[in-house]
Amino acid sequence: WAETIFRPFIWLLNGTGNFFLRLLGARRVDEHAQLHSVAELKMLVDASQRGGVLAPTEGEMLQAVFDFREMLARQVMVPRTEMICVEVDQPLAEVIELVVQHHLTKFPVYENDLDHIVGILHVKDLVRVMHRPGQTRLGPRDLMREPLIVPDTVRVEALLSRFRQRKQHMAILLDEYGGTAGLVTLQDLLEEIVGEVADAFEPGEPDVQRLPDGTVRVNGLMPLEEFNDVFGLNLVDPNYETIAGYVMGRLDRIPKIGDEVQVPANEHETLCLRVEQMDGKRIARLVLRTTPAPGRA
């Protein structure tokens, strides 16, 4: 699928690259040759952005496609703690309440606990039976479809192919112990390329909000790699993939509201990460502020 996406861009970038190469006095690429190296394509995208040939949004989308090829499903998943699921024998009236509350079109169906996902309930299947005489006693067990279950280490490019082959838009991810790690939808994958798509019913909050007092509010589920990119840091923790996980690792205990972790921002400033909101035992939101580095106050 990547070749299909890249074909028009490769043509454009080859032409753009030849233009810049001519300016530098270098030999042009043959018209019938193709640049297959990802590194070369990245270089051409960057040059095309700086030269004004590609709009910033176009360049960002192409760079996202390059990154997409290397990503694992667990990097884009909805974690287990955020999954909205239904129990296999849950009354339909309760399921309908969940639909109204969360505006989702598909729900994982579990039996006994979340480590035993047995199906996927599609809201459209629910709607079909809601007003049919004699069918109101049906439940998720009767309506669910077979789930697509994959390891959380599968590459997102391969998962996208599985979606196409199985004609499904949701996959359940298993961790190394066989437990449910989370889920990934087709929308999650596409948003990695085109950016987050706002929910028509509930826009929600951005991952990063700059507040009037100069502090910054951050979603705890923000990937650590993305956090580093936004704030120019290099925070690393092999055990966690989100900024909330990083803070919890530094605290080495279950966090509570008001807990703070400090990390060097640069040689002059320290970045303070304060827990603002908890969701159960998970950090939901952090507030960031900078203070003078020790010895520079």
Description:
The chain is of the alpha+beta class. The chain folds into 3 domains: 67 residues, no CATH class; 120 residues, CBS-domain (Roll); 85 residues, Uridine Diphospho-n-acetylenolpyruvylglucosamine Reductase, domain 3. It has 10 helices and 12 strands. Strand 10 and strand 11 form a beta hairpin. Helix 2 runs antiparallel to helix 3 and helix 3 crosses helix 8. The radius of gyration is 23 Å and the shape is globular. It starts with a helix and ends in a 5-residue tail after the last strand.
List the helices and strands and how they pair.
Elements: H1 2-23, H2 38-50, H3 56-68, E1 78-79, E2 86-87, H4 92-102, E3 106-111, E4 113-122, H5 123-130, H6 140-143, E5 149-151, H7 156-166, E6 170-174, E7 180-185, H8 186-194, E8 208-210, E9 216-219, H9 224-231, H10 243-251, E10 260-264, E11 269-279, E12 282-292
Parallel strand pairs: 2-3, 5-6
Antiparallel strand pairs: 1-7, 3-4, 6-7, 8-9, 9-12, 10-11, 11-12
